[in-house]
Amino acid sequence: MKIHIEPVSSVVQKASVTFDAKECEGAQLSVLKRLQATATLPGFRKGKVPFELLKQRLGDGLEAEIRQELLQRALRQIRDEQPSLKIVS
Question: pLDDT per residue over 64-77, tens digit each?
Answer without folding.
Answer: 999 999 999 999 99
